[in-house]
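Budget justification, computational time. The allocation requested in the original proposal was used primarily to generate C-alpha cells for proteins on the priority list. As evidence of use, we reproduce two of the resulting records. The first is shown immediately below.
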Amino acid sequence: MTQDIDERAKINTSRSVAAMIAIGVLNIITVPLLSKFGSHSAKTGYLTVAVIYGCIFTACHFFCFAKTKEAVITPEKEKISVKVQLKAVMQNRPYLLALVGQILFGFTLYGRNADILYYFTYVEGNASYYTTYSMCIIIPSIIGAACFQPVFRKLNNKGRTASLFALFTGISMLSMFFFNAKESPAIFYALSGLTQFFFSGFNTAIYAIIPDCVEYGEWKTGLRNDGFQYAFISLGNKIGMAVGTALLAGLLGKYGYIANQTQNATVLSIMKHAFTTIPGALWIVTAVVLFFYRLNKKRYNEIVEELKNGRKS
C-alpha cells in the first residue's frame, strides 16, 4: 500500500491493535461458547464454534479484499518460475532471517496455544482460570501492539525491534514457570500480562518486516515477487504451527494423556513446560536470530530511492 517505512509501521500497528482486541474478545467468549454448544458432546461444541468462527473470518476476508486497493503500481511482467523466485529469495538475507523468525514464531505460538486449555484444566485444575487469564491479557495486548511504533522510532530497525520484544517475551514466559494461578494469582496474572505485552509488540514487528524485504529483494536481484514472499512466509509460519502442535499431541499421547481424567506426573510436567519454559527458551532463540537483521531505516530509504531512480544492483 505504501513504500514509506514509517507509514508501513503505522499500518501494521493499526492492524495488530485491532487483531489483539479481536483475539482478546475471542479468548473470553470461546470457553463459554464451548460449554453452551458442547453441553451434550465436547466434539459437537468444538465443531460448532469452529464453524461459527470460520464463517465470521471468511466474511471479514472477503470484505478486506473488496476494500483494498494497490497503491504501488508495478509494471506487468511475464510469469516467473518458482525455481527462479526461490533462487532470488535465497539471496535476500533479511527475508531469510524473517522466514526463520516466522517458523520459530509459528512453532512457539501455536504449540503453546494448543497447550493452554490443557494447562489450565489439568495443571491448574480449573478450566475457568483460562477466562480470567484471557481477560488479564487483553489490555497488555493492545498496549504492546501500539508500542511497536515508538520502539521502532528509537531503534530504526524493525528486526532489532522484533528481537527486543522476543527477548523480553521469553524472559517473562520463563518466569511464569515458578508461579501458578492457584497459589500466587497476582504474580501469575501479572506475568501473563507482561508476556502478552511483549508478544504483541513482537507480533506487530515481525509482520512489518516483510514488505521491506520485498524492496530489498528487488534491489538485490532485480526481481520483485511480493506474492511469492508473502506466501512463503505464510508457509513457514504454518510449518512451525504444524510441527509445534503435532509435537505436543505426540508427546501427550506417548506419555499417557487420557481426556477428562487425572493425568500422570509426566503428562502434567509436559503441559507445564509447554506453557512456560519451552516457548520461553524458543522466544530467546528467536530474539538471537532477528538480532542479525540489519536492514535499518536509513539503508531501506537509500534502497527505495535507488529503485525509484532505476539503479538496481
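The second record produced under the same allocation is shown here.
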Amino acid sequence: MGRPDTPERAGDPAAASATGSNGVPATRAPDATPAAVPAGRGEAQCHPHAAYGVTIRSELGPLAALRADPDADTALGGTPATAVLVPGYSGSKEDFAPLIDAITAGGIGVLALDLPGQYESPGPEVETDYHPARLGPVIAGIVADEEAAGRRVLLLGHSYGGLVARAAVLAGASVRGLTLMDTGPGELPMGRRRTQLDVLEPVLRRRGIDAVIALRDAGGEWSSTDPQVVALLRERLRRSTVAGLLGMGDALRAEQDRTAELVAAVRTRRVPCLVVCGLEDDAWPVSMQRTMADRLEAEFAAVPRAAHAPNVENPAALLDVLVPTWRTWLRDDILG
C-alpha cells in the first residue's frame, strides 16, 4: 500500500459530444459549474497551475506527484474529494497540467501522479513490475491512503493508465467514480501506435533511450510542438526507466480484455463510470471505446478537436465533461 505524501513545495469552449450507454445523448447533470480556469491549447504539459509537488510513498518506491487543494467555496460539502489522475505510457503527471486549476475550481482536489519509472519517479528493474496487474495494487494503495486521510477518490486513467486504473479497481480500490480516458478493453489494436511500439522496442532494448529520442527527433514527431513543451517531453523520456518503457510496451501488446471483471466489480460496489476519448483517437478506435462503455453501462463522451490526448489537445471541452459529471457523482454519493 502507499503511504501519505510528503510536501515538496517548490480554451477551447466547444462542448464534447456525450451520450449514455444506449447511444442517446446523455442528460447533462443539473450542475452548471464552469471550467473556470482557461486551459490554453499550446501550453500543453507546461500549462501554469497552482499545484505543488509532493512525494507519494508506494510499495514500488516514491512517486513524484502534483497535489492541488479544492476551492472550498465550490465544494459540495461532506467528505472532501480528490481526483487521482494516472498517466499513460511514456507520460507523467504533467500531462494533466491544463486540467488542474479548473478541477479545483469545481471543488475537487487533484493528485496527479507519475507511475513508477516515469520522469521524476524511480522504479524497479523488473519489466513485469510495470504490467497493470502489478501497478493496479500500487494505485489501490494510494487510493486507500487518500481515503484514510479523509478524502473520497475519483480515479481517472489515461491510455495505459486506464488499464492500470482498471486493475486498481479490480484490486479493491475504493473509488467513488472511475473515468477511463482514451483507453480500451485490452491490448492496443494494430495501427500506427502499435507499429511504433514494435519498431522502437528493439532499439530501446539494444541502444537505449537516447537512440529512441533521436529517432523521434528524426521523424519530426515533436516538430509542431512548442519548444518548451518539446524540451519537457524529451527530458522526461530521457529520465524514464528502460525497464518501465519495455514493461509497459509489452503489456500494451498483451493485456487481456478484463471488461467483464470490471463490470462485475463496479456493479457490486455501485461505482459510476465514464468513458471519454478524443473524437479522432488513433490508439483504440472510438467505436471500441463506445462498446466498452456500453458493456460497463457507463456514460460516454467524445471530445471534438482531440485525438489521443484531449487533456492537452482540447482541455476546455474535456473539462466540460469531467467537472459536471464528477460533481454529480459526488452529490449522489452524499445523498446515498
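A brief technical remark on that second record: The beta strands are 3-8, 17-19, 52-58, 61-68, 81-86, 109-113, 152-158, 177-181, 273-278, 299-303.
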